[in-house]
Every structure is written in structure tokens, then in C-alpha cells.
Amino acid sequence: MKIASLEDDLDQARQIQQVLASAGYHCDSFQQSVDLLGAMRETTYDLVLLDWQLPDMSGDEVLRHLRNHFGYAIPVILLTSRTQEEDVVHGLQAGADDFISKPLRHAELLARISALLRRAQPVQSAEAAFTVGAYRIDPSERFITLDGRNIVLAPKEFDLAVLFFRNIGRLLSRDVLAESVWNREIPATSRTLDTHLSNIRQKLQLRAQHGVRLSSSYALGYRLDLVHIAEQEASERVSPFPIAP
């Protein structure tokens, strides 16, 4: 997911970027409103984080500009130290989807982003069947086939697999996986996520010969990549980030 962050405080901007990157999001950070608005004419973002206090324009001015030019399809979260009820109401009425007070709490920020992104997914897209490599995924009927053969998965295994298939090439952190599939945080000491990852890898045979590769990056997360035919043989021989059983 690509997120745009408009924050004029450099330390705060770097912190936001680091938190989002650690959760598997791509974040472009801007310090000036004009830079954000210019970038949005060239790049499609899935969500915008918008500081209310800005040197060149007020947050609600930027928000109105976004809504006038890009509509309401892009979720916008206002970040501000102004927490009075009238401020919250003003921001929401201006077109914000959510409102987070400063200082930011990282877990809350990620949880709110995840919730907004889930709600922003079109219903038709979420239910439509699609194909990845040798796999056919049907979210509405809740089945996945490999080369035409149905693979039996437990409910959470299915949800986890669909999350990966929908986010090909994107690094997904453990926190994002836990929030998206279990709607809660999973302690680092728990083997729940590792067990489910191992199960879907084995049951779905997520390997290069079927056009995909599931890999892990230590302390960052997991990613399902498409594997081109020319890479398949080498990918079978070398697995730089093996998933623990």
C-alpha cells in the first residue's frame, strides 16, 4: 500500500515514515502542501496522513483541495495536537475519515490505517475471483485451486492466503498480518502466525514451479512474489529467506 504523509516537522516525518515502513507500507513524506498536491497528480496513493498545522496552508484547506480534486475514494487521516470537540468535528466535516491526536501512538496509528484501508476496498473487488500464477482464488465462495485442484484450508489459513495473494510483492509485517486476519495483536512469543504461515506454504505449495515465492525478511515481515519462468529454476535452488516450519 502506498501512503502519502504531509508533516512539516522533520523528526516527526521521519518517525512516521519509519513506523509505516516497518509495517510493510510504502510511504512518501512531504513537508510542503504544494509538494503533496503535485505528487498526487502523478502518483496514486491508497491513503493520506495529513498534519493540521502546516506552514504554507492549513490542514483543512489541503483537505478541501484533496476532496475537490480527487474525490472521497482516498482515505485521509488528520494528525493534530488540537483535541477539542469542535476541532474534531471541524476536521471530520471538512472531509477527514479519521482523526488522531499527537503525540502519536504507533500501534494506534497502524491499527487505524489498517481499518481505513479495509473499509476503502471496493465490495465488488473484494468478492471477485482472480488468478495468481497457477492459483485461482474465489473470496466469495472461499476456495483456492492449484492447477484446477481445490486446496482445503482452515478459515484463518484461507484469510491469510488471500491477504498475500491480494498484495503480491508487498512486504507485510507481522502486525499487519495479525490485525488483518485476527483483528488483534499477536504476541511475539506466540507460534500462531508461524504455524499458519507454514500450513499455507505447505498446503498451497507456494514455490517457484507454481509461479510464486513466499519469503521472509527478518524483523520486517513476509512477502509473496511472482516468479518469472526464467527465475524458477534458480529460485528452487536458492531460498534467501526461508520460512520457519
Describe the fold and architecture.
By secondary structure, the chain is α/β, with parallel strands linked by helices. Helix content is 42%, strand content 20%. It contains 10 helices and 11 strands. The protein has helices at residues 10-22, 33-40, 59-70, 85-93, 106-120, 123-127, 155-166, 174-182, 192-203, 229-237, and strands at residues 2-6, 26-30, 47-51, 76-80, 98-101, 130-132, 135-138, 143-146, 149-151, 212-217, 221-226. The strands form 3 sheets. A 5-stranded parallel beta sheet has the order 2-1-3-4-5, with helices on both faces. Helix 5 (106-120) packs across helix 8 (174-182), helix 7 (155-166) packs across helix 8 (174-182) and helix 7 (155-166) crosses helix 9. The longest helix has 15 residues, at 106-120. The two termini are 28 Å apart.
Describe the structure concisely for a colleague.
This protein is an alpha/beta fold.
Rg (C-alpha, Å): 20 Å
Main sheet specs: 5 strands, parallel
- Uncertain parts: 229-245
Secondary structural class? alpha/beta
Distance between the termini: 28 Å
Kindly report the spatial arrangement of strands forming the biggest sheet.
Answer: 2-1-3-4-5
How much beta, percentage-wise? 15-25%
Oligomer: single chain
SSE sequence, one letter per element: EHEHEHEHEHHEEEEHHHEEH
How would the global form be characterised? Answer: elongated
Helical content band:
40-55%
The count of strands amounts to 11
Overall residue-averaged pLDDT value: 83
Number of helices: 10
